Amino acid sequence: MIFDRMDVKMREEKLFLDPDMTLAGLSQRTGTNRTYASNAVCSRYRNFREYLNSLRVEHLLQDIREGICTEIDQADGDDFAMRYGFRSRRSLDRVLVRETGCTYLKIVRRRVGLKKQGCGR
């Protein structure tokens, strides 16, 4: 129940896009204490950071599939990553490789049929 309430809040308000989002901040916004919030998140994910990153990657992949996100310019990489809640392009790519096996550039280039080409979830 606690996780569901937090997850709805996180998704509806897109709190995961805030690079400064913390478990304490989320628990405060949902009216639960940090320990209960931590236990709720850890019942489904390894930790809060993994939960946040999975939501961020899910959102990014959805934007790519819908054609909203097709920027390939490396010059604004860190600014782009910040829009999806990551502090840098490097951290974005690190999480994407762990989650999908591909960097952002490879995913965008293969956006048609992500699953068929080994990128995406």
| Total count of domains | 1
Strand residue content: under 5%
> In CATH terms, what is the architecture?
Orthogonal Bundle
Biggest β-sheet strands, sense, barrel: none
Contiguous low-pLDDT stretches (5 residues minimum) are 112-117
Write structural notes for this entry.
By secondary structure, this protein is mainly alpha-helical. The chain has one domain: Arc Repressor Mutant, subunit A, CATH 1.10.10. The chain contains 7 helices and no strands. The chain has helices spanning 2-12, 23-30, 34-42, 48-65, 77-83, 89-100, 104-109. Helix 5 crosses helix 6. The protein is elongated. The two termini are 26 Å apart. Residues 112-117 have low confidence and may be disordered.
Task: Name the descriptors.
7 helices; mainly alpha; Arc Repressor Mutant, subunit A; 0% strand; 121 residues
Question: How would you briefly describe this protein structure?
Answer:
This protein has helices spanning 2-12, 23-30, 34-42, 48-65, 77-83, 89-100, 104-109. It has 121 residues and is mostly helical. The radius of gyration is 15 Å and the shape is elongated.
Present the secondary structure layout:
Elements: H1 2-12, H2 23-30, H3 34-42, H4 48-65, H5 77-83, H6 89-100, H7 104-109
Helix pairs in contact: 1-2, 2-3, 5-6
